[in-house]
Amino acid sequence: MTSEPNDGSGNRPHRSVINSAAYSNGVRVADIPIADLGDAWKHSDRFLWVGLHEPTEKVLLHIQQAFGLHDLAVEDAHNAHQRPKLEVYDDCVFVIIRTVKLSDRENQRIEFGETHVFLGPRYVVTVRHGSPHSHVGVRARCESTPNLLAKGEGFVLHAVMDFIVDQYFPVIDALEAELDELEVQIFSGKLMRSVTARIYHLRRDLLAIKQAISPLIEVSSRLARSNSQLISDDARPYFQDVHDHVVRIADLIDSLQQLSQTALESNLALISVGQNDDTKRLAAWAAMLAVPTMIAGLYGMNFKYMPETQWVWGYPVSLGIMLVSCLILYQWFRKLGWL
Amino acid sequence: MTSEPNDGSGNRPHRSVINSAAYSNGVRVADIPIADLGDAWKHSDRFLWVGLHEPTEKVLLHIQQAFGLHDLAVEDAHNAHQRPKLEVYDDCVFVIIRTVKLSDRENQRIEFGETHVFLGPRYVVTVRHGSPHSHVGVRARCESTPNLLAKGEGFVLHAVMDFIVDQYFPVIDALEAELDELEVQIFSGKLMRSVTARIYHLRRDLLAIKQAISPLIEVSSRLARSNSQLISDDARPYFQDVHDHVVRIADLIDSLQQLSQTALESNLALISVGQNDDTKRLAAWAAMLAVPTMIAGLYGMNFKYMPETQWVWGYPVSLGIMLVSCLILYQWFRKLGWL
Amino acid sequence: MTSEPNDGSGNRPHRSVINSAAYSNGVRVADIPIADLGDAWKHSDRFLWVGLHEPTEKVLLHIQQAFGLHDLAVEDAHNAHQRPKLEVYDDCVFVIIRTVKLSDRENQRIEFGETHVFLGPRYVVTVRHGSPHSHVGVRARCESTPNLLAKGEGFVLHAVMDFIVDQYFPVIDALEAELDELEVQIFSGKLMRSVTARIYHLRRDLLAIKQAISPLIEVSSRLARSNSQLISDDARPYFQDVHDHVVRIADLIDSLQQLSQTALESNLALISVGQNDDTKRLAAWAAMLAVPTMIAGLYGMNFKYMPETQWVWGYPVSLGIMLVSCLILYQWFRKLGWL
Amino acid sequence: MTSEPNDGSGNRPHRSVINSAAYSNGVRVADIPIADLGDAWKHSDRFLWVGLHEPTEKVLLHIQQAFGLHDLAVEDAHNAHQRPKLEVYDDCVFVIIRTVKLSDRENQRIEFGETHVFLGPRYVVTVRHGSPHSHVGVRARCESTPNLLAKGEGFVLHAVMDFIVDQYFPVIDALEAELDELEVQIFSGKLMRSVTARIYHLRRDLLAIKQAISPLIEVSSRLARSNSQLISDDARPYFQDVHDHVVRIADLIDSLQQLSQTALESNLALISVGQNDDTKRLAAWAAMLAVPTMIAGLYGMNFKYMPETQWVWGYPVSLGIMLVSCLILYQWFRKLGWL
Amino acid sequence: MTSEPNDGSGNRPHRSVINSAAYSNGVRVADIPIADLGDAWKHSDRFLWVGLHEPTEKVLLHIQQAFGLHDLAVEDAHNAHQRPKLEVYDDCVFVIIRTVKLSDRENQRIEFGETHVFLGPRYVVTVRHGSPHSHVGVRARCESTPNLLAKGEGFVLHAVMDFIVDQYFPVIDALEAELDELEVQIFSGKLMRSVTARIYHLRRDLLAIKQAISPLIEVSSRLARSNSQLISDDARPYFQDVHDHVVRIADLIDSLQQLSQTALESNLALISVGQNDDTKRLAAWAAMLAVPTMIAGLYGMNFKYMPETQWVWGYPVSLGIMLVSCLILYQWFRKLGWL
């Protein structure tokens, strides 16, 4: 195993090469330094599996020379922020997949990354960009089933894709949970300013995931129908399985997008209803202030002959009338549902 | 008939195997224990039909070994929550369909389930997940028409699909009835907070059904155009018939989705109209309080020379003026339609 | 002509068989009882045209046996509420078309019906469901042009389809007129509660028609490109003509759907504008009450030294000030367009 | 040149036949009466170009007999209000195009018309319906370039289509200008009732043009890829050019449709903002009336011991307090942006 | 290098011909005057690369005659405002691409231009319209890698397209930054009139870019799959790379369009919420004025027997009651979140 020097920009030493091993009959037989990959590939029939993480240009150059990769694919592999795609060159398949992960960070739900895979006769190179899960687990799982690994390169590509696609499900579950929570808030009757912002951010996340997953529909479908010698006939159902998962994820996102749109519109309707309710409540209280004010105004008039004003009980009776009229109004508004 | 031991998680004993029988010329001739299915299939030309319900892994393993099913299909059959699909392997057709049922439960209109069907030469295995209707009725109906059943595996698949697809219609009828009821409420002139929530939940149900039914359009269409030996030529019009039903269901859902969207928007418009009506009503009553208040204010002024205040009839006349002006206002607002 | 006994459910005797006649060289030569259709078809080269209206099962059985129709098609023909479609069997074409008619009934603009057509060598059977127009006119028109009728079965199918499709135009004209009327109301400046409900019902009608007509696009297109011997080469331009009409109807509906959506949104905007106008008008009147109330309040203060209150003209002058300030406000609100 | 008698319905004599001429090597050699077209076409190799305007049935019959046109095409040519289309018969191409023109009339921005073209070996017949521009200019332009005209029928069709399609651009420019003007009004801060109606009518116009132009995309594309002998190989790039223009027009309309939708929604948002602004302004003025009213109310109380009421300066000081509190409120609302 | 005389319309002398050079083995060997291009092309095997900027008709005529270009393409090249397209003539490929640039001008974010490319055997002609970046950089970069330039015409076309497409990214970044800024404003809780206008203009810009980039998806895809001899096999992956970029740009725009739509709707919802908040705040203050006014009204009544009015402490106590009730209301509204 070769450890490349750190790029120097970070504090933690960065390891470009995570793994570089040769397999024979599905069993790991040797670690191959990056510089020796070319010889190892040409002069033996062992299967090579190299795992890189944000590799330096130097490492990529070694890889390119070892397996004779196309300039453009190597250039892509060096730059993240590519669109998921499948590129078929003469003797090499190049796949880009976007990876997702629920984020621990504040203000961000999802972290995106990218995995690029070069697949050729007797070699697989995976290049990982961004923080999401390492593929160490994939390698360990593959190594624990040597008979599958012995079936060749196609199965490694499948294992990596399957692993990455499965990571979408918890993310979508989290977004579904978020929408369920928003539903409760929207229909709770309380008007919350934050709901609109949360729906907006949910929709932004859904759009981002959709852009990551939709190109995979075609990629996985092409792999399942591929004529390439690199994908053996019995590997195709497995890619079809990946394809089914991708389509299901796309379906779920589609559904969430439509539901969140309806939620946004329902929210708007309920804001209006809530506004109306508030207006009515205000009006009811205003009426209960206005009626005594009017009655008081009456007895504030300066007519010479106002019999009530001369009565001993005039004042308390007028107060009583005010109180009673307020109570009647209160009951009435109660019945109308305004209070 | 074999009865598998309960999985142990529930209280009620759970039967994995509902039915496992051999048919000859469309007539049930024997019940075959799960463990003997492989022999029964290989060493006789009788047709085998196995019905499972949320089977244990052990049962599925028996089935897989008996008929040599593909790993991936068996894995799918064990896990529910798959997308409806049709998978064609060399000598086996694997179909997943989602089933629906009107729910008795509070707060939930629709229950979803899944039925997976393995169809091969001289055998059909149906695996049911979730609570909706058992297929016992399908088997009974098939057994009552031996001549159809004698036509082979394809007809059993058709019978199961036809049965499941027909269960969508009452569900859609229920949603249509719900929308009709909502229409009445929306246009009744009363502002109901619950209407928005009900439209939202209607739309959520429609989305869920749409996701269950739309993949069936392609599944049924592929079965109707299939070249597989498992689907005989004279079975194809029957799958075309299923296809027509599926397309009609999809059409109905589409229509309900668009109508419910319009209902949501109409609701929003009518909430605004209702708000306006309330504002006007409030304003009318406010005016009828404000006018006497103003008149009372006039006669509350402390001018030395206010002839009216000295009149004996000043007070009752002023009260009369207030009353009359209120009545005039009332009539006027009435005419304007504000009250 | 055979008259089938009434089904018994209605008050009016119901005639299943409207017409059942044989044609030779485009000329009607005999009426054939339903029971004799099979013989008449097999043992002569005359062309048979049968017209049914909501036939009993017994009548359909006669027809099926006479021409050897497929079970599924006959089952469809017995049940209305099918989706328009074209089914091609070995030697028979089965077409379902939905018919429309402007309704006389209260609360319903459009009545839908269905016409099913069986077309085979030397026979056409039309089965009509629902109330819309009978096809008697079609038969009469066909019989008046024997040379066209002599061209064969395809031309009869065309005549029926052309007749049914042409019935869509007056319905769409009525919906267009409705939208024009709604436009006038929306932009008239008056706020009408009923407008929203009418747009909603217009959109519901449009959706229903769209569902009836859109499957016909493919049906008519397939007939125009058909290789079936039943549709002769020179009949194809005629089906292309039907296809053009269907596409035009679909276009018109599409356009009405989009316009009515815009109308719904414009309505919403104008409701808000109207609300604002009302608020301003109310505020203006409130101000004209509040100003005199405030002035009256001033002179209601009990200060010992308020010179105005001692003046002889104090009271009328204060009333004058109130009046003048109200007039000034009135003019001002007028200028602002609030009144 | 033949002049057909007027149909009699209008006041101005109506000329069905605008032009009917024979061309040899691209040069006009003779005017041919309608009645002689058949002979002229059969017995010479000259190219015939006939221009009709809302022809009578008699004229169309002459034309049909002369060139052996299909019944359905002639029927179409007699009735306007067809959908743009391209119909290919054995030896004749029939094209329908909708024409547009900016209208001079009040309350209508756009006038639509139709041009039908019959194109066969050595003849072109154009039939114009509705008022928009005559094709006299097209003929003049073609006659001025005999070498192009000599290339045959296809070039005449191209010239007509190019001319008609180019007429769409000024109409779209006018609609763009209308939207620009609406933008200014929407964002000007003034609330105008008319804006909503104008957006609605703009959208109606856009829909009408879209329906006129979109079928042309396929028509022009089919002409550019046509295998018909009537369209020579070197004419195809010219139809491709027409196709490019049509697609560009469709693009522009699409863009205007989306922008006008956004404008409608922005308008709605700004109506709400405007409403809020008005409410705040009203509230500010209401507060400035309510504060003095309350203070006046205080000093209207009849307590025996209210020292202020006994002061000589009590009254002016209270007025001063009212004035100052109003000024403070005014400044404060100013700062808040409510006034 | 030939310098054409200025067109005369501008103040600055305008150079139609930016560059006109011959290359041999990827190295610039000579500058060729426009008038000599035809000879240079026919009588040598050197590769010619001509760069024009808003060329005069005379210059274009020279070019057309030199390389035998099609009339229509030359006509297009003279007029800007074309839709991006790829036209394949017998021995020439004609490409139109729209260019974008962030604008320095006030009130305009983006400037559009057009680049037309003629590509034939051993020649490339680029015609630039509008202000955006010159291609001098492209030429310089190509000249610095003679080995790539030596590969032929296809690589020059790729270099130009790659350069133009890369210019879209900073523009989209700017629009993304604008949307991020708008998000902050929308959810800041402050109601800003300008936000709606800014979303509108953002959406207008997005539509304009979308119209510029979407036709490129097909153009670049066709170039990547092209069979033309002008595009060599090893050039295709490079066009596929351009295609990937174009699709990614289209994806980003799509995403921004959907997000900005959601932003518009969220803005609308928050305007309503804000309106409601303002209404509540107003109502709270109104209540705090109305309560003392009512109390003052009470003690303004002229009853003979009102014990409080006779008390020495009556006045200050009543003031205290008013103050306390206001404070209680203030606290209460505070708790309700209305203030």
From TrEMBL, chains A, B, C, D, E:
<keyword id="KW-0812">Transmembrane</keyword>
<keyword id="KW-0813">Transport</keyword>
<dbReference type="GO" id="GO:0005886">
    <property type="term" value="C:plasma membrane"/>
</dbReference>
<dbReference type="InterPro" id="IPR004488">
    <property type="entry name" value="Mg/Co-transport_prot_CorA"/>
</dbReference>
<dbReference type="GO" id="GO:0000287">
    <property type="term" value="F:magnesium ion binding"/>
</dbReference>
<comment type="similarity">
    <text>Belongs to the CorA metal ion transporter (MIT) (TC 1.A.35) family.</text>
</comment>
<protein>
    <recommendedName>
        <fullName>Magnesium transport protein CorA</fullName>
    </recommendedName>
</protein>
<dbReference type="GO" id="GO:0015087">
    <property type="term" value="F:cobalt ion transmembrane transporter activity"/>
</dbReference>
<dbReference type="InterPro" id="IPR002523">
    <property type="entry name" value="MgTranspt_CorA/ZnTranspt_ZntB"/>
</dbReference>
<dbReference type="GO" id="GO:0050897">
    <property type="term" value="F:cobalt ion binding"/>
</dbReference>
<keyword id="KW-1003">Cell membrane</keyword>
<feature type="transmembrane region" description="Helical">
    <location>
        <begin position="312"/>
        <end position="333"/>
    </location>
</feature>
<comment type="function">
    <text>Mediates influx of magnesium ions. Alternates between open and closed states. Activated by low cytoplasmic Mg(2+) levels. Inactive when cytoplasmic Mg(2+) levels are high.</text>
</comment>
<keyword id="KW-0460">Magnesium</keyword>
<dbReference type="InterPro" id="IPR045861">
    <property type="entry name" value="CorA_cytoplasmic_dom"/>
</dbReference>
<feature type="transmembrane region" description="Helical">
    <location>
        <begin position="282"/>
        <end position="300"/>
    </location>
</feature>
<keyword id="KW-1133">Transmembrane helix</keyword>
<dbReference type="InterPro" id="IPR045863">
    <property type="entry name" value="CorA_TM1_TM2"/>
</dbReference>
<dbReference type="Pfam" id="PF01544">
    <property type="entry name" value="CorA"/>
</dbReference>
<dbReference type="GO" id="GO:0015095">
    <property type="term" value="F:magnesium ion transmembrane transporter activity"/>
</dbReference>
<keyword id="KW-0472">Membrane</keyword>
<keyword id="KW-0406">Ion transport</keyword>
